[in-house]
């Protein structure tokens, strides 16, 4: 939301300099000013040259409308009631994921990545792809949260922990378990080389002789190094979505996958993380029909 407000602020400054809005005072913005901003969003191009996604435009309008309500300016609400202009709508976009073979290709290439960055990168990719953790959930995990007997990791710092979320376990799937075992051995070696016997962070980073958690910026640098080494651009959220999609593709029930991702409802899972692919859905329908009509299958086989 903070990034969104920075974009909105920049947009109105740009529009003001081009004399396309009457004011940049949120209390005095008019219908024409809002229409100019919406036109700016429609023609805006991202760094890769693509237009702003409809969902992004819709989010910007929600942020702006919330702020205008705060300063007692109901212009956007009035425009919506009067159908003054067509507002951008959130649409269900295709979930971006990596294939299982692509994930394994990345992991294979990262085996040769040297140093402690390589150790962390291999652990990072394996855990995100095969446990579905969020970015900060792994970075801020404690050693005590990991249980290799049950192959679970307690998410001690979940998204929304200060308001609605509670700690819950995440499952570490079999493909990542060897990586976890190897990481724990490398972790002990790394700490021993620094003269440290034990520490709280699951993934420690030693700063001036003290083992601490990675900062988010440094965590991002490890991820960027991993991208360069394996030659694959990825987002950590994409690996989380990949986890969900692989589970669906393997035949996992949507409610089970939603539970593994720690979502409150399957709607969030299906909108942003994982869906039954069309070919998979068709196979399931065929199987359901054959199961319900075994006599038809027998007749077909006899005819063949």
Jot down its keywords.
two-stranded antiparallel ribbon; single chain; about 300 residues; 5 strands; globular; about 55% helix; hpI Integrase, Chain A
Helix-strand layout with pairing:
Elements: H1 2-17, H2 31-43, H3 54-70, H4 75-82, H5 100-110, H6 115-131, H7 135-139, E1 146-147, E2 152-155, E3 168-171, H8 177-193, E4 205-207, E5 210-212, H9 216-230, H10 236-249, H11 254-260, H12 266-272, H13 278-292, H14 294-303
Antiparallel strand pairs: 1-2, 2-3, 4-5
Helix pairs in contact: 1-3, 5-6, 6-8, 6-9, 6-10, 11-12, 13-14
Q: Could you walk me through the main structural features you see in this protein, from its secondary elements to its overall organization?
A:
With 304 residues, this protein is mostly helical. It folds into three domains: 2-82, no CATH class; 100-260, Intergrase catalytic core (hpI Integrase, Chain A), CATH 1.10.443.10; 277-303. The protein has 14 helices and five strands. It has helices at residues 2-17, 31-43, 54-70, 75-82, 100-110, 115-131, 135-139, 177-193, 216-230, 236-249, 254-260, 266-272, 278-292, 294-303; strands at residues 146-147, 152-155, 168-171, 205-207, 210-212. Helix 1 (2-17) packs across helix 3 (54-70), helix 6 (115-131) runs antiparallel to helix 8 and helix 6 (115-131) crosses helix 9.
